Amino acid sequence: MSPVPKLILQRLVLGVVTLFLVSALIFVGIELQPGDLAEQILGQSATPDTLAAWRAELGLDLPPHVRYLNWLGGVMQGDLGNSLASRRPVADLLSQRLANTMFLAGYAAVISVPVAVVLGLLAALWRNGIFDRGVNVGALSAISMPEFFVAYVLILVFSIQLGWFPTLARIDEAQSLGDALYRCFLPALTLMLVVVAHMMRMTRAAVINVLASPYIEMARLKGVPRWRIILRHALPNAAAPIINVVALNLAYLIVGVVVVEAVFSYPGMGQLLVDAVSSRDLPVVQAVGLFFAATYVTLNVLADILSILSNPRLRRG
Amino acid sequence: MTVTTTLKSAPPTAWFGMAVVALTIVVALGAPWIAPYAETEIVGAQFQPWSAAHPLGTDNLGRDMLSRMIFGARNTVGLAMLTTGMAFAAGSVLGMLAALRGGWTDQLLSRAIDVVMAVPPLILALMMLAIVGASIPNMVAVIAFIYIAPVYRLARAAAMNVVRLDFIEAARLRGEGTLWLMRREVLPNIASTLIAEFGLRFCFVFLFIAALSFLGIGIQPPTADWGSMVKDNATLITFGDVTPLIPAGAIALLTVAINFIVDWMLHRASGLKT
């Protein structure tokens, strides 16, 4: 087998194994609990008979490995079980929130990727100048700040003092796209500020790395203008690491929504997960947690595959 | 170079960082003597504005904000130190063990760590806390467990370079046990790498604890902590009051400060001139 398909296959297998282990981890954790779900739902005053009836209804009387396989089989068919708190199917709870979270993360990604690449290029173009230093200090500070701090500062400035945007990002299906984009601007901006710093630093590093190579020296000696060196010679060769870091940051974005959704009361997956953890609604935690893990693992595997494919030494094998 | 000349060569950002860290340590250690009121004492009405008696007003339950900020420094920073310390202790021991033993010990540990690293930390922490329930000891244990992974990788990589050297071979031939090798031969040689990483990991853990507490599943009331103080008083922001931003700003300030110091140290270690 040539090295590229083999490497890609390895990454894919690792990703799938990870997801299985994560799903099993939750199951084992629940098994280790004293008492079971029937006792938790019915409380301590329940009689042994009602407990037994509940266990049979929830399938808790079956051995653990059978229940795990049952649950896994259900997940494959889109049946995620029922929420303990609301008794509704988890899949119903998820559908709308999933779309909302994807909308917010996508919105943030669409603004942040171009901004990060342009800032990184400019910092590389004027490296060690005032612009570069300013952007660097800004990026270091942005990485260090908790998301909720950034979010509340934005709320204070843009929605309380200037009154331009709403403080809460409540959206529903009745709204037009423009309205939804307007309402979600502050959460998207918060996410952008958090991810841009990292992407920009990596873009700068990748471009500067390429600028050190002999063919750039050659181009410079030929008298090619600086912006043209950057755009035509450096950027295409720095594309691979940049694409890799973009994919990694999109993975981060999916996770970053948890805190941002909590600040803006945005009806997304993150908010659902936090509520479910507080009320220990384990079927919901399991489903949402697995969704986040799956998205994160997929984007990471994608980033790995892209960097393998963009490496000519590996491609030719 | 002596300590004083090293410090004199530090850039202003590093000086700023060191000043902030020193101030935080003094406040955290001296909390009971500095704070005007007790940590959970209810001293007045809810959400009082700033006044001479309560320089930062009172919080959602009528407790003095300034006192809670001061105790919060002790709790949030102290717990982050404890958690980072636990992760480093376990991670470096496991990393050195993998490097020294090799074979299936190394394979087993490394693959398990791969799995932990493949899941986003916040999601993993939330799922584990849903299972064990939200409390301070559980939170510390869960975060320490998650941060074993990066420390393990670093310690293993650093120890791998050491275990190939002759003095390890000599000690092995002398018949020294793994524990002795770890403590006397490997640890002193990888300690500087681990210490440099400690500052950076501390920042991550600190932000992590703040985020979990902000979400209401980290440090539980009535313990004062900067993350949950933001959450409890967040409604004030809609009235244009900046008080809830003070604990959030303190978190940001401390992490920025530590990052400035770490950046300067890495710069010096890499031998680059500023």
TrEMBL record, chain A:
The ABC transmembrane type-1 domain, residue ranges = 98-303
Q: What family is it from?
A: Belongs to the binding-protein-dependent transport system permease family.
Please verify whether the record's keywords include Oxidoreductase.
no
Q: How does it sit in the membrane?
A: Multi-pass membrane protein
Supply the name of the protein. Answer: Peptide/nickel transport system permease protein
Keyword match Chloroplast: no
Protein localization: Cell membrane
- SUPFAM superfamilies, per this entry? MetI-like (SSF161098)
Q: Which UniProt keywords apply?
A: Cell membrane, Membrane, Transmembrane, Transmembrane helix, Transport
Q: Show the PROSITE patterns listed in the entry.
A: ABC_TM1 (PS50928)
Q: Give the UniProt entry's GO cellular component terms.
A: plasma membrane
Q: Which residues cross the membrane?
A: 12-30, 102-125, 137-160, 180-200, 238-264, 284-309
> Which Pfam families does the annotation name?
BPD_transp_1 (PF00528), BPD_transp_1_N (PF19300)
Query: Quick one: a GO biological-process term for this protein?
Result: transmembrane transport
TrEMBL record, chain B:
Q: What is this protein called?
A: Peptide/nickel transport system permease protein
Query: What biological process terms from GO does the record include?
Result: transmembrane transport
* UniProt-listed Pfam families: BPD_transp_1, OppC_N
A cellular component term, taken from the record's GO annotations: plasma membrane
InterPro entries in the cross-refs? BP-dependent_transpt_permease, MetI-like, MetI-like_sf, OppC_N
Any stretches that span the bilayer, and where are they? 12-35, 77-100, 112-132, 198-219, 245-266
Looking up PROSITE patterns in the UniProt record yields:
ABC_TM1 (PS50928)
- Would you say which domain of life the source belongs to? Bacteria
Membrane-related topology note: Multi-pass membrane protein
Q: Which residues form the signal peptide?
A: none
Q: Where is this chain's protein located in or outside the cell?
A: Cell membrane
Describe the location of the ABC transmembrane type-1 domain by residue ranges.
73-266
Q: Which family does it belong to?
A: Belongs to the binding-protein-dependent transport system permease family.
Classify the main location.
membrane
Q: What is the lineage of its organism?
A: Bacteria, Pseudomonadati, Pseudomonadota, Alphaproteobacteria, Rhodobacterales
Q: Which UniProt keywords apply?
A: Cell membrane, Membrane, Transmembrane, Transmembrane helix, Transport
Species name: Salipiger marinus
